[in-house]
Design a protein that fits this description.
This protein is mostly beta strands. Helix content is 0%, strand content 48%. The chain has no helices and eleven strands. The strands form two sheets. Strands 2, 4, 5, 6, 9, 10 and 11 form a seven-stranded mixed beta sheet that branches. It has a four-stranded antiparallel beta sheet with strand order 1-3-8-7, with no helix packed on it. A hairpin with a 4-residue loop joins strand 7 and strand 8. It starts with a strand and ends with a strand.
Length: 127
């Protein structure tokens, strides 16, 4: 069993930057596809970014493409989300997700494709 653990959230002004991190508690996820999702109160969780196990294939939601960068360090068993040019609409709880998958080097953007989830970290962007 693996338990993702997010960190790095906080309060930032619009236009600022934050870097989220995700580590694995329990089993390592260094060879698994990983993703970031976010959720605001009263809304469904939405896809933000995803990476294949190698990091060679990445995918982004249109709303964050060009501003956010997903990366991973498999040696450190860690996942990151660099968020630049933050907007108030980026305010949400951000979740790290993992999928145990040793198949070709794909990334996944559907919530149901990830069985393992962290507890989330709050990101608040003030205007």
């Amino acid at each position: 069993q693996v338990q993702p653990v997010e960190s790095g959230g906080g309060l930032v002004q619009a236009g600022g930057s934050l870097k989220l991190s995700c580590a694995a508690s329990g089993r390592a996820f260094r060879n698994w596809p990983l993703g970031w999702f976010r959720q605001t109160p009263g809304k469904a969780r939405e896809f933000v970014a995803a990476t294949s196990w190698s990091g060679s294939n990445t995918d982004y939601a249109d709303s964050v493409r060009g501003r956010f960068t997903i990366s991973r360090d498999n040696a450190q068993n860690a996942l990151y989300l660099q968020m630049n040019s933050l907007k108030p609409e980026d305010t949400a709880v951000y979740f790290c997700a993992a999928r145990q998958d040793y198949s070709p080097d794909y990334s996944y953007r559907r919530e149901y494709q990830y069985p393992y989830w962290g507890q989330g970290t709050q990101v608040t962007v003030s205007s």
